[in-house]
Amino acid sequence: MEELLLNKDIIELKESSTLWLNTLVKEMRQKGECVYHLGFGQSPFPVHPKIVEALRESSHEKDYLPTLGLLKLREKISEFYKEQFNYKFNPDNIIIGPGSKELLFQALFALDGTVIIPAPSWVSYGPQVNIRGKHISRILTKLENNYKIRPFELENLCQTLTSKQKILIINSPNNPTGTVYSDREIKDIVKVCKKYNVIVISDEIYAQIDFTGNKKKGFFHYYPERTIVTAGLSKSHSAGGYRLGFLASSKEMSSLIKCLASLVSETFSAVSAPIQNAGVMAYSGDSEIMEYIGQCSKIHRASGYYLYHRFISMGFLLPKPGGAFYLMPSFENFRKKLQKKYQIFTSDDLSKTLLSEIKVAVLPATDFYLPSDWLCCRVATVDYNGAKIYQESLKSKVLTEDFIEKNAPNLKLACDAIQNFLA
Ligand code: PMP
Ligand code: GLU
Prior knowledge:
The protein has 2 domains: 8-46 and 288-422, Alpha-Beta Complex (Aspartate Aminotransferase, domain 1), CATH 3.90.1150.10; 62-284, Aspartate Aminotransferase, domain 2 (3-Layer(aba) Sandwich), CATH 3.40.640.10. It has 16 helices and 12 strands. The chain has helices at residues 17-30, 49-57, 71-85, 100-110, 125-131, 151-160, 183-195, 218-222, 254-266, 273-282, 287-314, 335-342, 347-358, 386-393, 401-407, 409-422, and strands at 36-37, 94-97, 114-119, 136-140, 166-171, 198-203, 227-232, 245-248, 326-327, 360-361, 363-364, 377-380. Helix 6 runs parallel beside helix 7 and helix 15 crosses helix 16. The longest helix is centred in the C-terminal third of the chain and has 28 residues, at 287-314.
């Protein structure tokens, strides 16, 4: 038989590390092993019953929907973002997809130019660019800057790039660090973007899980002519498996939307009709759903802060989270010990050893584009029973560390195990 020939741009692609680790942990748990799962970012809360009901009621909807997505849903998203973020998205410039991941991929496929990301950044941006046969340009950020890019770093990189157009992907609140860009920081980055013709892809999938409490203006506010916003139901509405996301931009970028509509029509056609109808309820602004999202965010904040304080007291270096459900502790203070006792030299060694020795699952910083010898890992803060903790949280005025230890015991046990491991 002839050798099977595969596309050279994807032949070396491996399964995305987040999904791979989640499957591994599930298998270990099925075999009866006790694993502390700090390796996967899935919101553990139930989907709000009103959204579930909307899905049930629309299960008979069977027609293909328009490639841009259901008009009613795009109108609701437009109203929701006007209300929550003061973004003025015209429904004609919104496109619905099966998760924002797919739309990010399609946008990166459609846009010409060098793609710039901060390191660390989410695992999938790089491979998505590689699939297109291109490479990403990284800006290596610093812990003392809370792993955020500084305008001059972007400027320095832009000066070396020859492509006429550039694309910067910024995710705030951030996966993997939990940090949030302030309006001031966004304004300063936008100045550089304008100077060097940089399009911003603002990945706002965690925008409603922001612990700082103050409303942000965001990239779209300062730079509507060249900002693309992506978001969806996966994180704020705890509905990752629904696979509903959207991409929005301004009229100045309507040629992109037109191009994406054609791409969609030749690929996935449209997101399933029942899910889009459920999305109409999710983005309706219903006060019960909004309160629910607010309460879930409080729990994300309490668990993020719990882990942050435990990690700081153990001697790790990391920024305090301002949103999302991740932390990126650095084990640099333990480098000598880890090398001597466990032959740990890379973040890959570190995550493998934590899993094999103490059953704590985390992802290595190298998957987030940091140099392999940086002893950091990404920790997700969501290994608890969402339905149960939500009910308990309604009885407590303040979500204290005791509350987390009682209702998210795996977070405590994982910290205890790490502490013993380093002792
Ligand atoms: N961006 C970031 C930073 C993420 O963590 C995720 C994780 N799911 C996504 C985008 C994609 O989300 P979805 O496809 O579920 O909308
Ligand atoms: N975004 C989640 C994470 O970083 C998981 C889902 C995914 O990667 O698509 O863990």
